[in-house]
């Protein structure tokens, strides 16, 4: 769905699906969330996407920072407790640079909130970056929400948000179904460097052939793993068996797959 209007109102009922809204030269992408209606209103006269005006923008800064594609394939999604966000790279894979759950300024996610809920700008949940990096780095698409990082509460009484900063890096993205092999290889003289790997299921349309619906319906099964990196880093080629004996079983009864990303690079010495 593409529209060119001064004011955009989107209300969703059919799940899940992506909606892309193009307003003049800017493109915004929204994901419909299961079990929810999302209403997003963008007023171009008040939409502040430049860094010099964003500080005066309130809710508009939230909209810009959540949906705008930044230069150099860099994005900064922000999510309030009601909505998950999807980090996505159309080209390459996600490389998480930073992540914050808490509050770092008074403007983001402040609409309709009393001053005492937004005044604490030194609130940060410990370990958020490592969690998001482990969950999302090396993937093409990754969904997270505040429910993943909100315990324990880092600052009671403060209205918090989750903000991530990531780039899209060129890499080889590989998926191998359960009970098969993942084969990684590089050109002569180069070695493997694994960005990330996850054994589980996040998509019904991957590795689903000849499987009953009950084995592919759980798309919230995620098990980030270092096993591939430990087995393959520094080698010219590498094959690894994809099964529960190697990676464990993060979701019993679900037919899983291994997704990973890696680059081929020339080894450094010294």
UniProtKB/TrEMBL annotation:
Gene3D superfamilies xrefs: 2.60.120.740
Family annotation (CDD domains): Gal_Rha_Lectin_CSL1-2_RBL_SML_rpt1, Gal_Rha_Lectin_SML_rpt2
Classification via InterPro entries: Lectin_gal-bd_dom, Lectin_gal-bd_sf
Record bears the keyword Nucleus: no
Domain of life: Eukaryota
Pfam family, one: SUEL_Lectin
Residue ranges of domain SUEL-type lectin in the record: 85-169, 176-265
GO molecular function: carbohydrate binding
Protein transport in keyword set: no
UniProt keyword terms in alphabetical order: Lectin, Repeat
Protein name stated in the entry: L-rhamnose-binding lectin CSL2
Upper lineage: Eukaryota, Metazoa, Chordata, Craniata, Vertebrata
């Amino acid at each position: 769905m593409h529209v060119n209007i001064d004011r955009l109102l989107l209300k969703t009922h059919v799940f899940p699906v992506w909606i892309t809204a193009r307003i003049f030269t800017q493109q915004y992408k929204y994901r419909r969330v299961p079990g929810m209606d999302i209403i997003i209103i963008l007023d171009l006269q008040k939409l502040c996407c430049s860094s010099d005006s964003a500080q005066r923008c309130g809710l508009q800064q939230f909209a810009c920072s959540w949906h705008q594609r930044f230069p150099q394939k860099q994005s900064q999604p922000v999510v309030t407790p009601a909505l998950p966000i999807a980090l996505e790279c159309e080209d390459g894979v996600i490389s998480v640079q930073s992540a914050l759950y808490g509050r770092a300024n008074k403007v983001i996610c402040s609409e309709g909130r009393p001053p005492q809920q937004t005044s604490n700008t030194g609130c940060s949940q410990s370990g958020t970056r490592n969690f998001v990096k482990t969950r999302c780095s090396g993937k093409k698409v990754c969904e997270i929400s505040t429910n993943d990082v909100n315990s324990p509460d880092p600052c009671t009484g403060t209205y918090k948000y989750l903000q991530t900063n990531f780039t899209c890096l060129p890499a080889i993205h590989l998926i191998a179904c359960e009970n098969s092999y993942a084969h990684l290889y590089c050109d002569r003289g180069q070695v493997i460097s694994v960005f990330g790997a996850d054994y589980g299921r996040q998509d019904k349309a991957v590795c689903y052939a000849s499987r009953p619906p009950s084995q592919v319906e759980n798309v919230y099964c995620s098990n980030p793993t270092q096993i591939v990196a430990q087995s393959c880093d520094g080698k010219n080629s590498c094959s690894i068996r994809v099964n529960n004996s190697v990676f464990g079983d993060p979701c019993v009864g679900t037919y899983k797959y291994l997704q990973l990303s890696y680059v081929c690079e020339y080894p450094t010495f010294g």
